[in-house]
Write a structure and sequence with these properties.
heterodimer; A: 168 residues; mainly alpha; B: 158 residues; 7 helices
Chain lengths: 168, 158
């Protein structure tokens, strides 16, 4: 079963049809998805700025990360659930949208960046926790995170347009 | 000159015409507006969470507020600039849209509140502001900025 035929199957499920046809359901979920950016990305970006030495220079990095993490995770769950519902309501068109595909690639890259950061330089955070400007590898992770997420937001916004839609 | 005339002037300005005539300018400016939304949301929430006694609660409120301030002001400027450009391209539509007026009223109140009452509370010496007052200030701040965000999103649904 190809991804396209999976999306076609998904589009014919009763839930997808109901969501697609509801007058206020889709815009409501879209609004939740956009506004939860503040909670998820807003706080994630604050940690990235700390990694770059651009804010909270006197607050230990581990404290910023640890204290904000529960909120970031809560925000992320809202983003994932609302995002999945948005896809579920319009599966075929979204799948064929080039910006959606760019967004998925950037999401994977952003996840890899976070994994690398946590399994390498962040393991030794005790050594640089109090540095106003963290070591280069931490700064690179922060910068990449901001770059990827800005791309994800921009690509997400562009899903509304059918420029360069793919037929497969 | 009535307000509608003024909005009409924005609508027919060269900037408004240019954005409307372009297929990609509006969504690109909107993308900047959304990235700015994330940053301003973070800068506001960082401090409001602290006022609620959550988030970075082992740090003094004033330190968190001082550190967040440049990002709050910077992102607000990005939002105001990109927002004005978006508005210019559809000013008359905005004039007749309730959501636009909800957003502008909330924005006006949010800016005034943030840089007067909230600022006085966040910059106060530790222990000078009670926890209840801090929480009320945080609640009002979150409510006003949410009004701006929800109103803004609703302008897109016509």
């Amino acid at each position: 079963m190809s991804l396209l035929s999976f999306c076609e199957w998904l589009a014919n499920t009763p839930g997808s049809i109901a969501l697609h046809e509801s007058a206020w359901g889709y815009p409501l979920i879209e609004s939740v998805h956009v506004l939860a950016l503040c909670l998820f990305l807003g706080l994630a970006v604050m940690l990235d700025f700390r990694l770059l030495g651009l804010t909270m220079r006197r607050v230990p990095v581990s404290e910023v990360a640890g204290r904000l993490l529960p909120w970031t995770i809560a925000g992320f769950l809202i983003m994932i659930i609302s995002g999945a519902l948005l896809f579920y309501g319009i599966p075929v068109r979204t799948y064929q949208n080039i910006f959606f595909r760019i967004k998925v690639v950037l999401l994977v890259l952003s996840g890899l960046n976070a994994c690398v950061f946590h399994s390498t330089v962040y393991r030794k955070v005790a050594q640089w926790d109090l540095q106003p400007v963290p070591p280069p590898r931490a700064r690179i992770a922060g910068a990449l995170s901001i770059l990827f997420w800005a791309g994800i937001v921009a690509a997400g916004r562009m899903i509304a347009y059918n420029w360069f839609d793919q037929s497969r | 000159m009535s307000l509608l005339h003024l909005f009409g002037w924005f609508d027919s300005s060269a900037v408004g015409e240019t954005i409307r005539a372009s297929t990609w300018l509006f969504p690109v400016i909107e993308a900047f507006h959304l990235v700015g939304l994330a940053v301003i949301g973070g800068a506001v929430l960082l401090v409001d969470l602290r006022l609620f006694g959550l988030g970075l609660r082992s740090q003094p409120v004033s330190r968190i507020a001082r550190d967040a301030q440049p990002w709050l002001i910077g992102s607000l400027l990005v939002m105001l600039t990109s927002g004005t450009l978006l508005f210019t391209s559809e000013a008359v539509k905005c004039y007749y849209h309730d959501a636009f007026w909800v957003k502008m009223t909330s924005l006006f109140l949010a800016i005034i509140f943030t840089f007067t009452i909230r600022q006085r509370v966040t910059m106060a010496e530790p222990g000078r502001v009670g926890p209840l007052r801090s929480k009320i200030v945080a609640l009002v701040s979150v409510a006003l900025w949410s009004g701006v965000g929800i109103g803004g999103r609703w302008i897109g649904f016509s």
